[in-house]
Amino acid sequence: MTIESVVADLRALGLKEGSRVVVHASLRSIGPVEEGALGVVRALREVVGDGGLVLLPSFNHGVPFVRGAVGLFDPRSTKSENGALSDTFWREPGVHRSHHPTHPFAAWGEGAEEIVRGHDLTLTIGPDSPLGRLHRQGGHLLHLGTSHEVSTAKHLAETLAHAPCLGYAGDAFSVLLPSGELVKRSPWRYRARPCPLTDEGKHIERRLEERGVERTAPVGYATGRLSPLVDFVREVLGLLREGAPGAPACRACTIPPGRAEGDWEC
Question: I want to staple 31 with a disulfide (CB 3.0 to 4.6 A). Which of 15, 136, 171, 220 is the partner?
Fold first, then answer.
């Protein structure tokens, strides 16, 4: 596929100039594209333009902090564990990466530097995280060949709902700032067991379909899914509040916080 064919598919899905979007993508699902992952990155940037914004998770999920690893996060060199597209994107000129030790976001476009600033000093996926800011800005959630099993935005809803399975104290990890200063920053404490409402994504997908929140269309060989973040978060909050068949509402759940993500193998 050419870059221009991917551009056409993204536009047909509903992405347009000026869009502000967080992206989850599987390059393998999209299929062979001119210039590979870089070709998809260029297609996204061409569609939203300089006045839009592209935000991708570039999480390391604690890999630098397992026993025997380097023991710090360097936003200028630490690999993203979110796939080829993510690891290509954050390395591109003009992309700004947040300094969160385990869950840094990378952004390109209008306001990119501002949207990632201070992420290491706030809740991992909270209202002042890059994703929380995009939510307030009226951004969108885009999936390319991926499902809501991997939607980071569901964790924004969980944080806004004060889900008791997410703790916020304890572990601190080393971050090497671009200034050369080495600092300690704390991530979240992720839940000890999977959430029966959100982790698999099936309850989210059914709810979005029932309410007509999400647009779908082919992007390459993948299924593209596009939804307004404000609508997505509203529906996940409703799911947490109401529960689903076989899964209790969040307030009735007894799953506790686990260890901090990134500290599981230490």
Answer: 220
Write down the pLDDT at residue 260.
56
Residue 90: both structure tokens together? 């954050």
pLDDT of residue 264: 39
Angle, helices 153-160/229-242, rounded to nearest 10 degrees: 50
- The strands making up 105-109's β-sheet, listed across from edge to edge, are 96-97, 105-109, 53-57, 20-25, 140-144, 222-228, 215-219
The 10s digit of each residue's pLDDT in 174-232 is 999 999 999 999 888 788 889 999 999 999 999 999 999 999 999 999 999 999 999 99
Q: Give the global pTM.
A: 0.95
